[in-house]
Amino acid sequence: MAGQLLKTINFMNGWVLSNASSRINLTVLQIQAPIRTLKVETREKLKALKIPEKPKRPLSPYLQFITEKRPALLKDNPKMKLTEVIKLLSTEWKSVSDEKKEKYKEKYQKNWEVYNQEIAKYNANLSEEQKQAMHAATTEKRKDKQKRNLTKLIKETEKPKRPVGPYLLYLKEQSLAKNMSQKDLMASLKGQWAALPEAEKKKYQDEYVKENEKYNVLLRSWEEKMIAEGHKDLVRAKTLQEIEVRPSRILNVKKSKPSDQ
User: Fold this and answer.
1) Looking at residue 252, what is its pLDDT?
2) GO CC annotation: what is one (predicted)?
3) Eight-state DSSP code of residue 232
4) Using N-to-C axis directions, what is the helix angle for 166-178 and 198-228, rounded to 10°?
5) What are phi and psi of 194, to 5 degrees?
6) Longest CA pairwise span in the chain (Å)
7) Helices (H), the chain
8) Terminus of the chain with fewer CB atoms < 10 Å: N or C?
9) 6, 83 Cβ separation under 8 angstroms
10) Is residue 27 within 8 Å of residue 70, measured between CB atoms?
11) Are 44 and 61 in contact (CB under 8 A)?
12) In the chain, what are the domain boundaries?
């Protein structure tokens, strides 16, 4: 539960607190990071359409508890990290009595009923153009999130890196020899690669071919492992088609023990 809350808070840029009738209300200001993932034309269209602020979903019983307890905890421990705050309050939440939790649930249900009325009214007042623009923005955000998740998974699963081409191998060698950054070297060696004799170029081309062969072997092994682990979305369509014809290697990867790999 603590991890789930941290994920929620990662999309917040502040907590605005107000005290009214001994109740502490929390208004969460969402950061603009998700909006920056939208295409420029989509952002401009949303701005031009002047779409009103959408009603916020009510806080769950757990988040209500965090809202109430967090200010006092930070007042006594101003240097406490957010992760420590969440961990401490998450533990404290587990010891809250069922009776008190029920009160949070009742409040949540009431707030949810109000939210349903507000969101229905909000949607009814939107023009068709505004609805289409919001739908397009939601689709873009979802695709961007999927892309970022795939990138993260590729990194976590240590996908083999494609080797650099002959030209970059040449630049790398020259940068080491001349103690220059590749950026500065590219400016100073502009045109030299094109003028290099074919016999000289062949050395780098052969090295690339050798490294690329190693890469293809490692990549195929990695893809087979990804398929066995259920990550087909990380695998090339070509590999998937070949596996459908010859699935035996994948089955062996899936059945093998960690010590056998």
Assistant:
1) 53
2) nucleus
3) G
4) 110
5) -65, -35
6) 84
7) 2-9, 33-36, 40-49, 61-76, 82-94, 98-125, 128-156, 166-178, 182-188, 192-195, 198-228, 237-245, 248-255
8) C
9) yes
10) no
11) no
12) 2-155, 166-260
- Amino acid identity of residue 227, one-letter, is I
CA distances from 46 to 53, 121, 132, 133, 182 (A): 12, 20, 10, 6, 41
Confidence (pTM)? 0.54
Which pair of structure tokens corresponds to residue 236? 């090339």
What 3-state DSSP class applies to 233? Answer: helix
Q: At what angle do helices 82-94 and 2-9 cross, to 10 degrees?
A: 140
Tokens representing 180 are 């220059």
Residue positions counted in the chain: 261
Identify the CATH homologous superfamily for domain 2-155: High mobility group box domain (1.10.30.10)
Question: Tell me: the pLDDT tens digits for 146-179?
Answer: 999 999 999 999 999 999 999 999 988 888 877 7
Confidence of residue 253 (pLDDT cuts 50, 70, 90): low
Q: If we measure between CA atoms, which residue out of 72, 88, 71 comes closest to residue 5?
A: 88
Kindly report the three-state secondary structure assignment for every residue of 7-68.
HHHCCEEEEEEEEECCEEEEEEEECCHHHHCCCHHHHHHHHHHCCCCCCCCCCCHHHHHHHH
Contacts of 174 (CB under 8 A, 6+ apart): 180, 185, 189
Percent of the chain with pLDDT over 70: 79
